[in-house]
Specification:
homodimer, 732 residues, Rossmann fold, 38% helix
Chain lengths: 732, 732
Amino acid sequence: MLLLKNVNLFSKDAETMNATNKSLAFLNPDSIAIIGASTKPEKRGYQAIARLLQDGFPQSGIYPINPKAPEILGVKAYSSVLNVDAPIDLALVCTPARSLPGVIEECGKKNIGCVVVLAAGFSEIGEEGKAVEQAMIDAGKKWNVRIIGPNTNGIFNLHKKANLVGVPDAEIGNIGLVSQSGNVTLGFITEVARKGGTGFSTFIGVGNQADLDFSDYIRYFADDENTSSAVLYVEGFKDGRKFLDSAREVVPQKPIVVFKSGRTAQGQISAASHTGSLAGSYSLTRDVLRQVGVTVVEETDNILPIAEALGKLPVAKGNRVAILTDGGGHGTIATDALVDAGLMIAKLSDETVRKLKEILPPAAALNNPVDVAGATDEDSAPGAIAVELLLQDENVDILMVTGMLGGFHRRFSETLLESELQAAKEISLHVKTYQKPVIIQSVYRPQKVEPLMHLQQAGLPVYIWVEPAVAAAKAVAEYGASCRRLQQVGDSSDITVLPEGTAIFDRAYSEGRSALFESEAKDLLRLYGLDVPPEIIIKSEQDLSKLPESLKNEPLAMKIVSEDILHKSDAGGVKLNVTGEEARKIAFQQILNNAKDYKADAKIEGVLLTPMLKSGVEVILGVTRDATFGPVLMFGLGGVFVEVLKDVTFRAIPLSKTDAAEMVEGIKAVEILNGVRGTKAIDRNALLDLIMKLSEMVWMHPEIAELDLNPVITRPDGVSIADARIILSEKK
Amino acid sequence: MLLLKNVNLFSKDAETMNATNKSLAFLNPDSIAIIGASTKPEKRGYQAIARLLQDGFPQSGIYPINPKAPEILGVKAYSSVLNVDAPIDLALVCTPARSLPGVIEECGKKNIGCVVVLAAGFSEIGEEGKAVEQAMIDAGKKWNVRIIGPNTNGIFNLHKKANLVGVPDAEIGNIGLVSQSGNVTLGFITEVARKGGTGFSTFIGVGNQADLDFSDYIRYFADDENTSSAVLYVEGFKDGRKFLDSAREVVPQKPIVVFKSGRTAQGQISAASHTGSLAGSYSLTRDVLRQVGVTVVEETDNILPIAEALGKLPVAKGNRVAILTDGGGHGTIATDALVDAGLMIAKLSDETVRKLKEILPPAAALNNPVDVAGATDEDSAPGAIAVELLLQDENVDILMVTGMLGGFHRRFSETLLESELQAAKEISLHVKTYQKPVIIQSVYRPQKVEPLMHLQQAGLPVYIWVEPAVAAAKAVAEYGASCRRLQQVGDSSDITVLPEGTAIFDRAYSEGRSALFESEAKDLLRLYGLDVPPEIIIKSEQDLSKLPESLKNEPLAMKIVSEDILHKSDAGGVKLNVTGEEARKIAFQQILNNAKDYKADAKIEGVLLTPMLKSGVEVILGVTRDATFGPVLMFGLGGVFVEVLKDVTFRAIPLSKTDAAEMVEGIKAVEILNGVRGTKAIDRNALLDLIMKLSEMVWMHPEIAELDLNPVITRPDGVSIADARIILSEKK
């Protein structure tokens, strides 16, 4: 077996990446040129300056560029950036598409690292626009100027008071936002303004991603001290593989939340009419993003709640959740939702139960969920003690507090406020001490009551509804798991291309073929250590006596080999369960005779002999080169499970062992592999070993465009590849 | 075939129901006694009076009952309701558990129709409490007093200014709310207070449901002019079948939204510790509730958005949705979410597309989703016209408007406000004209901008996020479908019990058995017209010559029949594919000989002969008598589909034809029945016919406690019941 060792599986050009990181300092600008600055209030070139001034961006750092006006809004204007006698970090370009690349040349000469291009009229309008876009990109490369957009609604960095989008009400905070839709961005901003909680650090409208793309922006967030989690609204990645490489590195430093629109065939059509982005199979996209630790969210209204939790809370060490409730309803709803979300309801230690019993009334439920049964109606102290007891319990990874925390003084008596505030302070201290995520749901969240505001300021997210709280708990648990998984990768193996493998492809290419013969495909698999049952093609009866030992004592399947006979069974060209030399001879003759009767002039290669495969659970392994994410492996159960239920998982190649294990465990019908109706579990290790070897082989051979192992028979005593098909990439 | 005709399938005692309805007028009270009225501000008996006065409930209708105080809060008090010289509609009872049933006796004497019992200490605390509760129920029956609770947080009717819960901030509106959890109720109330939109008409905390239960309350809502939709938070139904009967009648008048907590095994444990309610299989509960048209919601944060839409919008005539968007992002998100929710993206008529083209710019997307591409940035009129064009299209049942409707004046220029208001007015007129549901999502919803407020006042719900908007669209479409489906029921058949069927059960009961023999079960099925392959038990070789024609020319399966031989195959007691008289004789002798060799003293009944079943898709039909919902039918595909994937549907018996069709169509793997991998579709009509006959048979025979047809072989040319098992109910 070839082991992957000391290889950073994804990132290949770390140097380029670091260069990008550094250059993105322009997202933190001290000085901004407004190219196409205007004296007309309805123009972006005016509004941008007004906004900067209004927000308190230093006037000395604003450089309006206008061919005529001496000043705009009291700020000295220049006819060209070249006339500015100070360094400029960033330019907002408000001039039309055709003015680029001239603008970029000037910016390059002035050493401006980056331009934000608002104008539309580039690749999104078709061929003509594409040419304009390419000219701009070329200029950017020549003059070393990075481009945000074009066709973007701008960027903002609220910590720098630099709001180049001009949208009002954007609240400052720690979420970094990158979006491919202006309206969706607006939705986030108005929601935060309403709800409070957390706001934004930097926003980037990616526009056409002509130069800088999602990958670059998440690398910026990785280093940005004002960003604690990133939110990406994605209609399409320009280079998905590059994004996977970047995300894999960034995730352990900063959680990345992605909403990918265009999930359904209909949605993809709609998304394409918006941006012209490629939108591949959604389930493939979701699986490979999760593989590199990205938090994939599928409901827009859960994005902010999840980003807030990931940005604020400690990393969870597992997925066992304790629930503390002050009234039954929410405890039950939370339990249901947590179980549905795949989290574990923690089994509390005996000690925790014993200590809870000491502080709670007899009616309290002491097993998870813990229901205080009125113990906090008149004094909040027992609630805070219960929080500490649950956080202390080593069976608990995450704590969810549900009900009406912080609102007892509203519900019952204002005199309770002091006790509630004290409890809130204690809870926030416990969270710091025990470093476990605590997620709070309270029906008093909308009323912004004091105890909850205290908890929020202490870095604890508070939700009004159970569902976003559970979505947050799930995301926190999965992020913890991703961080642990990503650590494991990189220390597994060293791979080399086997020249015998390359020779197989060379022969096929030289013969002008677009696919390997089945026997070649099987030879290649054997070469890389995969278990393909032996097979031999016999041309004459004499050869039957020279069978290898591996075939002599097995019941065999015998099949005609002829490119002129496609339907072998119809031609009487198949004999099954043939045992013993005599029977093999008879079968050999019968097959040849039948074939001749079926088609007299058929060109016959011989008869293929292979052992009968013992029955088992059929699985399918497939490889495709996705247009955006590169080589990807698919796994599923055979038959209706793939065809009807689409119950498959994807992973980008190469896989880590954990990836392989998770992709098998990830199918819905996985229980079938564990044995049902009295059958034994299949040999899971053999299956995982096969997946790892397959991943390595495909990684070594870009000649493979597509591969199908269908079926692979999995049994309690091993796995066998029954059929293999390999389609070749176009020869480079 | 026995046809169901002119039978109201569920409701049996309509008279009782109507009586209940009438008596529930006490939820609309003009006069209220506060029994246990108090002079202490921390007591409910004081707070309730204070609240009534504060809200403007007529002081003349408030009757504090207190043994000593002459007046409370300036309202004349009485020592007993019997001393009040005016009619009293409702009594709020604030006295402890033990004071009931005395209180009820007094109320009965005073002719008070209903009491709201706040006290806890009844069945929820165990045996002792159960006795107290029963005494109270008995008193209620004796004195003709209905009971709300006990162990309830109260009721309110905001249109009557009667808030007996005392919760602040409850906004008036048209949602009727019934809840089994005080905290969950609080969540709804605080959310409405924050969001606006719609509020509440009547609230009832069901408490222990000792007397009045969910069924009674929905019947009240059916007649209440202030309620346009009902929301129920349910932990458990006391009598699920009664609820189904009531809901079936109420739904066509008023939509009912149910959130059922305790979905998962863990959640059920948690729910039980809260209320002691029975919580059955969740998927069964969900399916039978949907069968009677209840809108089952599974996320608490979707409950209010859905209830608002159902209460306000016209009934949808189908599920084809048009999407109108002012910017790509939301159009794509909405399309994805609508498709995922099972709705259809409408195919617009050529005429609509042509007319849209006239009013929208060239960049606009004219096929659904329709993207106005900036057409409404400076003038909202085209948006309103597009709304009318889409509503006119007969291919459109529901319209969803997404993006930033109503906020252009905020985003671009205040001068747009007038145009936006005008468009809002026109849109609300179009909705009235065309009577199709219009659902609006706008990122400016949180800012309560004027045009959106106008639309909301005109009865159009507006959502900030796409997901609740789509959940609302789905609910509206399903409610329309339910109304149509419920209309169809009731005109299908007349059923009678067949005495031969009863005789089969009588024999089994008389022999003290708890199950039918397989042959009896099959006879019963044949009796009710179900297709069970013929079978015959042969005791001697001579009998072989007297085979019925149906068996003579078929390949047969032959099996030993002996209660002493359970593992027939192991005993050599099974022969398959036996064809022809000679072969049958040989097989008969072999089977008997093998059986004797296997177990010399086995008592042998004979050899069973039945035709070999042609292979097909195996399905399972099962019947159970659910503890709360009564007889229920289950359908699923055989093997792993039921066992591993739990891919089954349930319907309460008796089923309508539409129920049968929907329960088959409702399994996830339904495509398998349509033929996959080159196979033909199974005979769906034969399967539906089987389901209907089974439903009728079970409805006629309460003797059947459980039934399993496993497997039923379905093929393109029919269906065959291969095995049947019937467990008997306990004899009455």
